[in-house]
Amino acid sequence: MELLVLAMVRQPSVTTAARSMLGRFLRGHDVTIRITEVEAYAGPLDPASHAYTRTPRSEIMYGPPSRLYVYRIHGHFCANVVTGPDGEASAVLLRAGEVVDGLDVALRRRGEHLAPTRLARGPGNLAKSLGITMDDLGVDLDAPRSRGVRFIAPDEIDPHPAGAGPINSVLISSGPRVGVRRNADVAWRYWITDDPTVSAYRRHPRAH
């Protein structure tokens, strides 16, 4: 049944939304990252998604879009962008990014011994670099002038970062999602090709 569902919807809208986030800038608590790696989750159409079954925790994924879905796993917070439309329950996990502003703050949060390319590599490290916690759950990422977590335009960063061209100008690679047990071979992880901040692929030991 799971394979049949995915065969019927090979490329749901959340995969387009996921690819469009690559190269965008996300600011959180005095740090800004350029998003370099994401994973798409298609809600009730996707058994790997938290929203495959509707629960109080996954309710936020059913909309409205552009809200921040935060969850905790293995002691780390993970940040997701709800993509909508309302009722679809799709979301994009932010897996990795390049710190382009607030490097000193990210270093204090993550550890001053780390190389800059490792600060936001992996979803837990990305959230920690941005200072994202459960207090940010439900934040509107498109809200203007927010002091919390939000998407920003390149011209809001000073100095203007390298590689801040149009989002559709980046080369994108795709592959299986990391650590997913169910539907492990669905290639809904996307990353900026050859970017040094992208995390390593690890297959779940019980993946199927």
From TrEMBL:
CDD domains: AAG. Belongs to the DNA glycosylase MPG family. Pfam families: Pur_DNA_glyco. The keyword DNA damage applies. Its EC number is 3.2.2.-. NCBIfam families: 3mg, PRK00802.1-3. Keywords: DNA damage, DNA repair, Hydrolase. It comes from the Bacteria. This is Putative 3-methyladenine DNA glycosylase. It comes from Gordonia jacobaea.
